[in-house]
Design a protein that fits this description.
The structure holds two protein chains of two kinds.
Chain A: E1 2-4, H1 5-10, E2 12-13, H2 20-30, E3 33-39, E4 45-58, E5 61-70, E6 78-82, E7 93-102, E8 112-114, E9 117-119, E10 122-123, H3 153-157, E11 162-167, H4 178-188, E12 192-193, E13 213-216, E14 224-231, H5 240-248, H6 256-268, E15 272-276, E16 284-289, E17 295-297, E18 303-305, E19 311-315, E20 318-322, E21 326-327, E22 339-346, H7 349-359, H8 364-371, H9 377-393, E23 396-404, E24 414-417, H10 418-425, H11 431-440, E25 444-447, H12 460-464, E26 479-483, H13 494-505, H14 528-538, E27 542-543, E28 549-550, H15 552-556, E29 582-583, H16 588-600, E30 606-613, E31 635-642, H17 657-672, E32 679-682, E33 689-699, E34 703-711, H18 713-718, E35 725-731, E36 752-761, H19 766-775, E37 781-790, E38 799-808, H20 817-834, E39 837-839
Parallel strand pairs in A: 13-16, 27-30
Antiparallel strand pairs in A: 1-11, 2-12, 3-11, 4-5, 4-7, 5-6, 7-10, 8-9, 14-22, 14-23, 15-22, 16-19, 17-18, 19-20, 20-21, 24-26, 25-26, 28-29, 30-31, 31-35, 32-33, 33-34, 34-35, 36-38, 36-39, 37-38
Helix pairs in contact in A: 2-4, 5-6, 6-9, 7-8, 11-13, 14-17
Chain B: H1 3-21, H2 27-38, H3 43-49, H4 59-93, H5 113-126, E1 131-132, E2 138-140, H6 141-144, E3 164-166, E4 169-171, H7 177-185, E5 190-199, E6 210-220, H8 225-240, E7 246-250, E8 256-265, E9 284-293, H9 295-301, E10 309-316, H10 317-325, H11 338-341
Parallel strand pairs in B: 1-5
Antiparallel strand pairs in B: 2-4, 3-4, 5-6, 6-10, 7-8, 8-9, 9-10
Classes of the chains: A alpha+beta, B alpha+beta.
C-alpha cells in the first residue's frame, strides 16, 4: 500500500507536524510496517519556480525563443534560451533549471551556447524532470498555483513529498486508503482524524433528471449500493496536484472524472465507478448474479465469459459493470461525457475475490473489496467525489443520492473485562489508559464503572508491577463496553479489543517474563534421526539436506519397477518449475546428483549422507491420480561415497562397497547399540544397485531394514555421475532403539583361539560361514574373526581359501586344551559338512 | 693343587669372564657366557671339583672364594645387561620424526549448518521445558489453514502461496499445523517446539520453495503476552550469544491475537549503520511471527479459551543461520555442495 506523506498530514490534526521519519516510526510501531520511504523530489535539484517577464525570437532560429525570467518580484531578469513552442506570455510561470542544477538523467547544467546566445540553464518539460513522457512543451504552472517565485520546483509539482510503502495486514481493509492510515497515525501520535470536505451545499443543481431505482438481489453479496447524478461536467485534464498525487501512488492520470474516482478511492479507501449517464438505457440499476455463460465486455475491451457466482451491475437486463472488479466498455466515461452517474457501493469480499481470481483481473478496486470495504463509507465517498467533480469539472449535483442499504447492521458493543486485559497482556493496564487508547482509535467506550465481578480476579503479578495504577482495587473487576468505528470490521471480540489497547499503549511497554513450568516435560525418547546424523558425521561423512521434491526424470532414474510404491510419486499440482514435479520417494537420486555436482566443481572425493522423509502413497488409488489421504512419510537414512578416502599423504585408497557397508553399520550401532544382530545377504535384484555388488541388511524377524552396494552403472549415468559410487539406505523406523546398555561381567579367565583354514566354493559368502558357526550353538564361542581370504590358480577354478579364528572362553574357569579342541573340532566338522568345505 | 692355587685360578676365572662378556652386545650371548662359567659343566664347577681333594681345613677358604667369584660373575652380568639396556634407551631417544607432516585423517564429517542451528535452538527451548513435536509435511488443508483461522477465500491465504497435491491436501506452508495436531491429542499444559520443512511458491536469494521453520506453542492457565516476549528474548540472546534488543511489532496472523512480528537488533551493524547491507539501514532484522493463540484456534481443537491462554511463534531457521553465520544466499543450503557443507 502506497501513501503520500502530505496526504496523511492533510487528514490529521496533530499538535506538532512530525518529520516523515517520526511518522514512519509511529506507523511501524502501531503495526503498519513502513517497508520503504522515497523522497519524491530526489530526482532533481536546482530547479526553481520562475516568472516569464518577456520573450523574443532567437535572432538566428525560428524555433528558439529568448525568454526573460525572474525569480523574485522586482529582481533582475535573466535570459534563457528555450526550444519549446508553448512559452507562456509574460506573467506565466515556468520551471527553470539554473546553472548547477542536476536533472534525473544525471546531467549537471552549465552555461551553454545555443546558436550564438549563451543560455544559463533551461526551462524544463515533464520529460526532463522525469515526470512523464510529455516532451512536447515546457511545464507551465497553473494560474491558480500559489507557490512563491524562486521556490524549489518540487513544491509547485507536489513533489516536496514522501512516498511511504506500507505493509498492510490482510485483515485491515480500512488502511487501504489514506484516511485509515491517518486514523492510525493520529492514534499513535495522540492527534485527531480530519475528514475531507464532503459539503455539497454550494454545488446543488436541480432535481435529478432521472429517478434511479436500485434493486439488490442479495444483500449479503451487496450490502449497500449508492448512485448519484452529476450534471454538466466538462471532461479535461486534472490539476497538477491531483495528477501528481495519483502518479505518486502509482496511477496514471487520465481525465478529471476518472482521476477523481481514483483520487477518492486512494483518499478514503472506497472504490468508485463513474458511468456516462447518457449511455444508460433505463433508470433501474440492478445488482444481480450473472447467468452462466453470459458475456460481458469490460472497459479494457476484453470480452469475458461470466459464471453464476459473478455479481454484475445491470441497466435493466444489460450488464454494465462487473461488481467491484471492472466497469463495462459500453457505459464508461469518455471525452464527450457531460452527465455522470457515480457508483459507490460495497460488495462481499469473497465474491469479488473469486471473480477477480477466475478472470485474472485484480484492480485497485477489487484489491480493496477483497479486504472488505466499510459500507458506511459509500455515501461519504460519493459526496466527496461529487464535490470534487463539481469543483474541478464544473458539474452540479442533481438531487439526492440514491441509496439502497439493505445490509445495514448495528453491531452490539463488545464487552471487555479489565482483568482479562491484564491477564492476556501481562501488563498492569487500568481503565483510564485503556479508554484513552481506544478513544484515540475512534472507538466509543462505555462502562468502566464498577459493576460487579466478572471472570476471575485480577492476577496478583499484574497488580504489583509498574507502581500505582490509577484505578484502585475497586476498579479491578470493571468492564468496558466498546464500539469500534464502522471501518474496523476486524474488531469483533474482546481479544481484538485487547490487541488494540496494547498496540496503542505500545508492545514495547509489555514486560518480559518466563512462564513457570507446571509439569515435567513428558518422556523424551532418544531421537534415532539425530543419533544417525551424529554418528555419520563422526564417521567422516557430511550431511546434505536436499529438496523434498524433484523432477519426474530424477525420480525415475532409479529404474524401479512400476509396481514399486517408490515409482508412483505424489505429484505437485502447481509446481513453479519441472524440478518440483513430484515428491521424492527415495533419498538416493538427490544424493547422487550431489555427487555429480561436486564432481563438476572439482570435488570427486565425496562422502555425503542425508536423513529425511520420503513421501509414499498410502493405500489404494490410481498411481497417476491425486492422493485422497495423507502420505506415508517414513524417515530414511542414506549415504553415498565416491572417489577416494582421505589419506595422510598422497592419494587415499578408492572407496569401495565396504565403506558404504561400514557407514550403514555405524548407524545401526548408534541406534541399536550393537550391530551384532545384523546379518548381510547378497541382494541381486535391487534395480539401482549393481547385481553382483549389493547386499541387504537383515535383523531377526527377519526384517530387511536397508541395502548397500555399488550404484548400478546405468542409474548413476542417468544422474550424471562418471565414476563408481557406493551407497547405503536404511529405513530408520525399522532399526530398534536400544534400551540403556546393561553392563556384562568383565571376563576373568583367559580365552584361547583356534584357527581353521577352509577351501570352499567361491560363491559361498562369508556370512554363511558365520551363520554355520552360530548355528552350531557352541556356548563357549566368544569371538569369530576372518584372518585371511584369497583366491589363486593353485586353489583351482571357483575355489577360495579362508582362514578363520575362533576364540573360546568360559566365564567360570580357564578352559583346558581338551575342552577347547573338542568344541573346535565339532564346529569344523559342521563347517566341512554344511558349507561344504575342505579343511586345509 | 693347593688352596692358594685354586683361589688364584678362581680369581683368574673372574677376570676371564669379565673380559669374555665385554664385547658381547645381546642378552642371549651374555647368558650363554654366564652358563659357560657358572653352569653345571662350567669353568667354575671344574674348579670346584678340586675342592674335595683339599684338606678339610682349607676348604672353607676356597669355598668362600668360589662364592665370591660366583657373585662377581653375576654382578658383571647384571651390569653388562644394564649397560646394554641403557644403550638401547639412548639409541631410541635419538629417533626423530618430522612432526610437521600432515595428521592422519580422522572423522572429518560435518553436520549440516541447519541441523546445528535446529539442535541448538531446540536445546535452548528445552531448557525452558519445551519438547519437540512433529507432524506430516504433506498436510490437510484443514490443519494447515481452516483450523488456524484461514478458511478458503480468506485474504490471508494470499500471504502464502501454497503448493497443492490435491484439492484438500497441501505441502504445509508453515509448521503451525503441528500446533493443531498437538492440541488435538494433548491437554494443557502444553509446551512444544516443532521444527520442520515447509513449502511456499517463492524463489529468490532469500526465499526457497522449501525451507525450515521452528514453531513454538505454550498453552496453560495464565500465559500472557509478556511470557511470549520473555521466551523469545531469552532465545535470541542465547542463540546469538549476545545481548540483542528484540522488538515486537503489531502484526496480523489469522491464528493469533494479539499478533506480533518479531524483529531483533541488527547483529551486523548493531543498528549503528545507515548503509548496513544486512538490515538495509533500518537497524532491525525480522526473525519471525508470533502472538497469543486466537480463541478461534482453541475452538477448533476443543480447548476452553476462557480457562487457558497460550502463545505461539514461528521462525525460519535458514534466516537465523543467515543472520548468525553470514550465509548470503538461501540456495546454498540445499545443494549438497561440499564447499559449503564443510565450512560449518
Amino acid at each position: 500500500m502506497k501513501v503520500l506523506w502530505s496526504w496523511l498530514l492533510e487528514l490529521c490534526d496533530l499538535d506538532r507536524v512530525p518529520t516523515v521519519e517520526e511518522g514512519a516510526r509511529a506507523l511501524t510501531r502501531g503495526g503498519l510496517e513502513v517497508e520503504g520511504m522515497t523522497d519524491l523530489g530526489a530526482g532533481f535539484r536546482g530547479v526553481v519556480v520562475a516568472e516569464v517577464v518577456g520573450k523574443q525570437p532567437h535572432p538566428k532560429s525560428d524555433k528558439l525563443t529568448l525568454v526573460d525570467v525572474i525569480t523574485e518580484r522586482g529582481g533582475a531578469a535573466t535570459q534563457v534560451v528555450c526550444g519549446a513552442n508553448n512559452v507562456p506570455e509574460p506573467g506565466g510561470r515556468v520551471l527553470w533549471a539554473q546553472i548547477g542544477a542536476v536533472l534525473p538523467n544525471g546531467m549537471t547544467l552549465a552555461p551553454k551556447e545555443v546558436r550564438g546566445v549563451v543560455s544559463p540553464g533551461m526551462l524544463c518539460s515533464e520529460d526532463e524532470l522525469g515526470l512523464g513522457a510529455d516532451h512536447s512543451g515546457i511545464i507551465v504552472l497553473d494560474a491558480a498555483d500559489r507557490t512563491p517565485l524562486g521556490a524549489p520546483g518540487q513544491r509547485a509539482l507536489g513533489l516536496d513529498d514522501w512516498l511511504l510503502e506500507l505493509n498492510a495486514p490482510a485483515n485491515r481493509g480500512d488502511v487501504l486508503g489514506h484516511l485509515g492510515v491517518a486514523r492510525e497515525l493520529a492514534a499513535m501520535l495522540n492527534g485527531k482524524l480530519v475528514w475531507p470536505d464532503t459539503d455539497l451545499a454550494a454545488h446543488r443543481g436541480g432535481a435529478a433528471p432521472v429517478a434511479y431505482r436500485i434493486a439488490i438481489a442479495d444483500p449479503d453479496a451487496c450490502p449497500r449500493y449508492t448512485a448519484r447524478a452529476i450534471e454538466g461536467v466538462r471532461v479535461g485534464p486534472s490539476p497538477v496536484r491531483i495528477a501528481q498525487r495519483l502518479r505518486g501512488v502509482g496511477v496514471r492520470p487520465i481525465s478529471n472524472l476518472v482521476d477523481i474516482t481514483n483520487y477518492v478511492m486512494f483518499e478514503l479507501g472506497q472504490p468508485l465507478h463513474a458511468f456516462d449517464a447518457a449511455t444508460l438505457e433505463t433508470n433501474i440499476i440492478g445488482v444481480t448474479p450473472a447467468a452462466d455463460g453470459e458475456r460481458f465486455q469490460t472497459l479494457d475491451g476484453v470480452e469475458r465469459a461470466l459464471v453464476a457466482g459473478d455479481l454484475v451491475i445491470r441497466d435493466r437486463d444489460r450488464a454494465i459493470a462487473l461488481a467491484g472488479v471492472m466497469g463495462g466498455l459500453a457505459t464508461e466515461v469518455t471525452d464527450k461525457t457531460t452527465r455522470v452517474l457515480l457508483e459507490a457501493a460495497s460488495f462481499r469480499a469473497v465474491t469479488v475475490r473469486r471473480t477477480g481470481r477466475r478472470l485474472g483481473l485484480r484492480s485497485e478496486a477489487s484489491l480493496r473489496f477483497e479486504r472488505g470495504v466499510d459500507p458506511e463509507l459509500a455515501e461519504i465517498a460519493s459526496a466527496r467525489a461529487a464535490r470534487l467533480m463539481c469543483e474541478l469539472a464544473g458539474g452540479t449535483v442533481a438531487g439526492d443520492v440514491f441509496d439502497a442499504y439493505p445490509g445495514a447492521r448495528r453491531t452490539p458493543a463488545i464487552v471487555v473485562r479489565m482483568p482479562r486485559v491484564r491477564m492476556l497482556s501481562g501488563m498492569p493496564l487500568d481503565v483510564a489508559t485503556s479508554r484513552d487508547a481506544l478513544a484515540r482509535l475512534g472507538f466509543q467506550v462505555g462502562g468502566g464503572e464498577a459493576d460487579g465481578p466478572i471472570g476471575e480476579p485480577a492476577d496478583g503479578a499484574a497488580d504489583g508491577a509498574a507502581g500505582g495504577s490509577a484505578d484502585g482495587a475497586a476498579g479491578e473487576d470493571q468492564t468496558l463496553r466498546v464500539t469500534p468505528p464502522s471501518a474496523r470490521a476486524d474488531v469483533t471480540r474482546e481479544v481484538d479489543v485487547i490487541e488494540e489497547i496494547v498496540r496503542v499503549v505500545g508492545y514495547e511497554q509489555v514486560g518480559a517474563t518466563i512462564p513457570t513450568l507446571r509439569q515435567a516435560p513428558g518422556v523424551r525418547p532418544a531421537n534415532a534421526a539425530e543419533l544417525a546424523r551424529a554418528a555419520l558425521a563422526n564417521a567422516g561423512a557430511s550431511e546434505a539436506i536436499t529438496f523434498a521434491y524433484q523432477s519426474v526424470e530424477r525420480n525415475a532414474a532409479l529404474g524401479l519397477p512400476a509396481t514399486d510404491r517408490r515409482a508412483q510419486p505424489i505429484a505437485i499440482q502447481n509446481p513453479m518449475s519441472a524440478d518440483q514435479a513430484v515428491m521424492r520417494t527415495s533419498l538416493l537420486p538427490n544424493l547422487l546428483a550431489a555427487v555429480a555436482r561436486n564432481g563438476s566443481h572439482g570435488r570427486p572425493d565425496v562422502a555425503l549422507f542425508e536423513v529425511g522423509s520420503v513421501f509414499l502413497r498410502r493405500g489404494e488409488g490410481a498411481p497417476d491420480q491425486p492422493i485422497r489421504e495423507l502420505a506415508d512419510e517414513p524417515v530414511w537414512v542414506a549415504g553415498v561415497v565416491a572417489g577416494r578416502r582421505p589419506a595422510q599423504i598422497g592419494l587415499g585408497a578408492p572407496y569401495d562397497v565396504f565403506d558404504a557397508k561400514a557407514l550403514a553399520l555405524v548407524v545401526v550401532r548408534a541406534i541399536a547399540g550393537s550391530d551384532a544382530a545384523v546379518r548381510t545377504q547378497p541382494a541381486r535384484d535391487i534395480s539401482y544397485l549393481h547385481p553382483g555388488v549389493a547386499g541387504q541388511l537383515v535383523l531377526s524377524g527377519p526384517i530387511v531394514f536397508g541395502w548397500f552396494g555399488e550404484v548400478h552403472p546405468a542409474v548413476r549415468a542417468r544422474l550424471g555421475v562418471d565414476g563408481a559410487v557406493y551407497a547405503f539406505e536404511l529405513e530408520l523406523a525399522r532399526i530398534p532403539l536400544a534400551p540403556p546398555p546393561q553392563m556384562r561381567p568383565i571376563p576373568r579367565f583367559p580365552g584361547s583361539a583356534r584357527d581353521v583354514s577352509l577351501l570352499l566354493g567361491d560363491a559361498i559368502p562369508a556370512g554363511r560361514v558365520e551363520e554355520v558357526i552360530a548355528e552350531a550353538g557352541e556356548a563357549l564361542v566368544s569371538r569369530v574373526r576372518l584372518l585371511e581370504e584369497y583366491r589363486d590358480a593353485k586353489l583351482g577354478e571357483g575355489q577360495k581359501s579362508m582362514l578363520w579364528s575362533i576364540e573360546y572362553r568360559s566365564p567360570e574357569r580357564t578352559l583346558t586344551d581338551v575342552e577347547v579342541d573338542r568344541a573346535h573340532e565339532a564346529i569344523v566338522a559342521r563347517l566341512v559338512d554344511a558349507l561344504p568345505a575342505q579343511r586345509r | 693343587m693347593g688352596a692358594d692355587q685354586l683361589i688364584a685360578s678362581l680369581e683368574q676365572l673372574g677376570n676371564e669372564f669379565q673380559e669374555a662378556i665385554r664385547p658381547l652386545a645381546d642378552e642371549q650371548a651374555i647368558r650363554a657366557a654366564q652358563a659357560q662359567f657358572l653352569g653345571k659343566k662350567g669353568k667354575v664347577s671344574e674348579v670346584m671339583k678340586e675342592l674335595s681333594r683339599l684338606p678339610p681345613a682349607d676348604r672353607p677358604l676356597v669355598g668362600a672364594a668360589v662364592n665370591r667369584v660366583k657373585a662377581d660373575i653375576e654382578e658383571h652380568v647384571a651390569r653388562r645387561l644394564r649397560e646394554l639396556a641403557d644403550a638401547v634407551a639412548r639409541a631410541d631417544l635419538a629417533r626423530a620424526v618430522d612432526v610437521t607432516l600432515p595428521a592422519r585423517p580422522a572423522g572429518g564429517g560435518h553436520l549440516h549448518l541447519l541441523t546445528q542451528v535446529r539442535l541448538e535452538s531446540v536445546q535452548i527451548f528445552a531448557e525452558l521445558g519445551f519438547v519437540v513435536a512433529e507432524g506430516p509435511q504433506i498436510e490437510t488443508d484443514w490443519h494447515t489453514f481452516e483450523a488456524l483461522g484461514t478458511p478458503k477465500d480468506h485474504p490471508a491465504r494470499d500471504m502464502q502461496d501454497t503448493f497443492y497435491v490435491s484439492d484438500e491436501i497441501v505441502l504445509r506452508s508453515h509448521t503451525s499445523p503441528v500446533q493443531i495436531r498437538t492440541m488435538q491429542t494433548q491437554a494443557p499444559p502444553i509446551r512444544i517446539v516443532a521444527p520442520g520443512h515447509v513449502f511456499r511458491r517463492d524463489d529468490d536469494a532469500t526465499h526457497s520453495p522449501m525451507f525450515t521453520q521452528l514453531e513454538g506453542l505454550a498453552v496453560d492457565e495464565g500465559i500472557s503476552f509478556a511470557d511470549l516476549k520473555g521466551v523469545l528474548i531469552h532465545y535470541v540472546s542465547r542463540f546469538f550469544a549476545r545481548d540483542l534488543t528484540v522488538r515486537f511489532r503489531p502484526s496480523y496472523f489469522p491464528f493469533v491475537e494479539p499478533g506480533a512480528e518479531v524483529d531483533m537488533q541488527c547483529s551486523f551493524c548493531m543498528g549503528k549503520s545507515t548503509s548496513c547491507r544486512l538490515c538495509k539501514g533500518t537497524g532491525w532484522l525480522e526473525i519471525g511471527g508470533s502472538g497469543m493463540v486466537d480463541p478461534v484456534v482453541f475452538g477448533h481443537v476443543g480447548i476452553d479459551a476462557e480457562r487457558y491462554t497460550g502463545f505461539a511463534f514461528g521462525m525460519g531457521l535458514e534466516r537465523m543461520a543467515m543472520l548468525r553465520n553470514g550465509v548470503d544466499n538461501i540456495k546454498f543450503y540445499y545443494e549438497g555442495d561440499l564447499r559449503f557443507l564443510e565450512q560449518f
